[in-house]
Each structure stands twice: as structure tokens, then as C-alpha cells.
Give the backbone structure.
Amino acid sequence: MSTTGTPTGPRPGLGRRHPLPLRPLPRRDRRPARLEAGLVRLRQRSRLHFEPLHIQDWAARLAAASRGRAVSAVRSFYAHCEDDLGAARWNLPPLRALAGPTPPAARETLSRFQTDALRTAADRYRGPHPERARLAAYMTLAGLRPGQSIAAVMQYLQRDNQAGPTWRLPVKNNSSSAVGPLTPIPRPLVWALDEYLPVRTHKAPHSTETEGPLLVSRTGRGLDHVTFTRLLREVAAPHPDLEEIAPGLHPDVVAHSPSPFADESETAGGNGT
């Protein structure tokens, strides 16, 4: 029995010849190595004169939001060629120089209609600790970031000033130890404070009547970001105009939105001018 075009060899243990086809490696097994070797050779051909400007021109044709990710992939490939495949050092410029500045993402905000609805929801909230929930929602609607509301402490609250109640708030995007100057408290927040402070659940050693976090849990500890966010969502959920967005509502979005207190510029003890 003969086979045409198929190499044969003696099969161990048998006296007759038996066909043993010699098959090449599957193409898919060789493709990565070929691709890497080809790209390295292409990169090393000096006559092509690759320059960083070519990457910049290519990136400029892409959508602004995807340039950084695309250029990062190119830089990663060159680093792989240099570190793992022995290619000559290329010294590409930094990512920002190749991709250009990253455009700021559009900031998500609520409409004035939605912030008005959240104020109404806070006034009508009848869940656990409704006074605390109302004050937390009002502080956020007034433009305070969640970190500021959480880090506000009783020591910096002055309600008996002749000019009206004032407070010192933590600086935005900073540690709780950095506080700003004394500022008047907007009148709607004064009303919310007047309802909350008599029922504030302070407990030593975490808080006292005059010291510790302003917003506290039933154990006297300050709220954390997770609890604060959940509280705001629980306030919004019962309102029919907010029930769709309530599960994903974030305090930062509310703080960046038009405040329903914008027309109530008069502070407690002020004359409105």
C-alpha cells in the first residue's frame, strides 16, 4: 500500500512501513510570533523614519474621548517591543504630549425641577431619623459636597452670633482638618438645623451635645459616604418625579445642580439685601 506525497517511516514494533503524516503547526499557533517579529523588523527599518509626530497625527483623527486610551495602547506595545523583544529604545514622549489634553467630561446635573422635587421629598420624608435626613438633603441641595457634610462638626457651628447663625465648613476636596472661613448659614438650613439638633443622637466618646460630627448615626458616630448616599436615595425614592433616578442618585450630582435655595439668599438674622 502506497501513499503519494505523504512522508512515511517505520512504525516502532512493526516490520512494515506505516504512513505517518508530518503536519505543520496550525497557522493560529504561529501567528502571534510572526506578527511580533514582523512588527519589530518594521520598527527597526530606519528608512521608514517613524517619528512621534506620526502618532500625534494619527491620534488627532480619533474622537477626543478615546485618544488617551488609544495612545496608551501604542505606548504599551512599544514598551513590550523594547523590554521583551529586544527592540531599540524609542523614548516616546509622555502620554499627554502625544494624545493632547483630555477634554473634561460633561458634568451630570439635575434640573431645577428635580432639585425642587428633592426638597419636597426631604420635607415629606417619614423614614428613620427624618430630621437628620432633611438636614443632609438640604446641605447637599445648598451645594455642599458629601465629604463636607460628613466632616462638618459641632465645634464650628455658631448659632448665637448677632449677625445670625454661621459655620466653618471643611474645604472641598480636602481633609476634614482643613476648614474655610466663617460663613452665614442659609435660612432654609437654619430651619433644618433647628429641627435636627434637639433630636441629634450624640453618644460619648464619639460625640457630645457640643462636639463631634454634626450628622451622626444612632451610635453617635459620624456618617460615612455609603450611608450618606443611601440616605439621600431613600429620601428621593418616594417622590414620583424622582423614583426613576433615585436608585443611582449621587450626592455630588445634587451638589453640582441648580439649588432650590438660590432665590432665598437671605440668611438668618440678615435683612435680605
